[in-house]
Amino acid sequence: MAQLFVTPGTLTLAQLRDVYQHPTLVTLDEKAYAAIDKSVACVEGIVAEGRTAYGINTGFGLLASTRIAHADLENLQRSLVLSHAAGVGAPLDDALVRLIMVLKINSLARGFSGIRRKVIDALVALVNAEVYPRIPLKGSVGASGDLAPLAHMSLLLLGEGQARHRGQWMNAREALAVAGLAPLTLAAKEGLALLNGTQVSTAYALRGLFEAEDMYAAASVCGAMTVEAMLGSRAPFDARIHAARGQRGQIDAAAVFRHLLGETSEVGQSHANCEKVQDPYSLRCQPQVMGACLTQIRQAADVLAVEANAVSDNPLVFWEQGDVISGGNFHAEPVAMAADNLALALAEIGALSERRISLMMDKHMSQLPAFLVANGGVNSGFMIAQVTAAALASDNKALAHPASVDSLPTSANQEDHVSMAPNAGKRLWEMADNVKGIIAIEWLSAAQGLDFREGVKTTPALERARALLRQSVPFYDKDRYFAPDIEGASELIAQRTLSALVPAGTLPSL
């Protein structure tokens, strides 16, 4: 298991990627307990004094003006969790649930939430025991917190609902026993602290970020391979061009291509004296387009890194002043907009890759056999693979529509503007899967094109990429069942085999 030492508010994107990718043993910094305990004492003081504070001794949402009797405070918190567990859809996978739980632990442990250490420790114990609550995919609008999915997460602490342990579903009490726990009774404010927050929206978007980074790396490698397969020029990647413009993403994207393409190669030398003046945009403008995508990925990463460490429940406990203040940190608009920007990047990465595939199909543009196969006519070659890439790229155009501009009022218009951040985040997964399919087809196409340039090699980095593919997918000498080739290349991309070829530090979490 991966090891994660949590000093609240300091998690990095690289750590969060590890949490998403591997079962994790969490250790909470003991220094966090002082602030946690003081925030609880502040809440207990308010209850003892009979002061009215939202969420502590009042109802919720439109019912905020309803005062709750002291004898009903524990039942209030339990009822809140049960009633709000109203999600629908397929259960989230273990990796995503684990990420959500770690984000929640990180936020609650900052000491602004008025929740006891035993509740936070119980979440830690569940993560460490690989016990993951059943959280349905849908049901949050990304404001007032991710109420429904976080309620499903919290049900387990009460001994309700279901959980999965190493692939096996079990009832809540059995699952708690695996982690050495018994059902909890929530104290004042604790149910609200668990349910309020943007952790689900943020986890959805973080998964999209990680996948966008992986697709960016794979597309950079395959784009460089296509430059070589198409006998393209290295001149458009010259550092002076990009320095003259000054766009940091473009400058760094061009550096990645120079790293992959090197100064020259046997392929490059084979057409050193050709008469071609310029390459098509999908080759020549890769630094400009991919650089813009890199900028969007980095900006989204900055927002999500902040949100992953944020306190986003409501109300917040400022124990030093003895204040409990109601606000709106649960509104996930920053996350929604970051996810929308990632959608733009994913759509463009895929669209540009599809255009490069199309170039390789055209024998007049590529100087390769039509549709990258010998004996054309008898063989259709990559003809329909390119059609598949076009279908995937077009699908992403529709999926890229911003979710953050949508809103439907909830809670009888008390919550009259919502972010739709979960929708913004989860559509990124489908988009990334589409891009993976497109890049897989480009990888196959570029390797096929290079194989037709018999007797000459490309650069060491790109030869490694070609060899990685050829270990799983042989040269396409005549028509065969094509889908397994695409699946094989897609699986290699999913395993991040190409990410290692991109310089470290280019992408935020890698």
TrEMBL record:
The keyword Thylakoid does not apply. Coiled coil: none annotated. Keywords: Cytoplasm, Histidine metabolism, Lyase. There is a cross-link at residues 143-145 (5-imidazolinone (Ala-Gly)). It catalyses: L-histidine = trans-urocanate + NH4(+). Its main location: cytoplasm. Contains an active site 4-methylidene-imidazol-5-one (MIO), which is formed autocatalytically by cyclization and dehydration of residues Ala-Ser-Gly. SUPFAM superfamilies: L-aspartase-like. InterPro entries: Aromatic_Lyase, Fumarase/histidase_N, HutH, L-Aspartase-like, Phe/His_NH3-lyase_AS. Its EC number is 4.3.1.3. It is found in: Cytoplasm. The modification 2,3-didehydroalanine (Ser) is found at residue 144. The keyword DNA repair does not apply. Pathway: Amino-acid degradation; L-histidine degradation into L-glutamate; N-formimidoyl-L-glutamate from L-histidine: step 1/3. NCBIfam families: hutH, PRK09367.1. Belongs to the PAL/histidase family. This is Histidine ammonia-lyase. It comes from Pandoraea vervacti. The lineage of its organism: Bacteria, Pseudomonadati, Pseudomonadota, Betaproteobacteria, Burkholderiales. The gene is hutH.
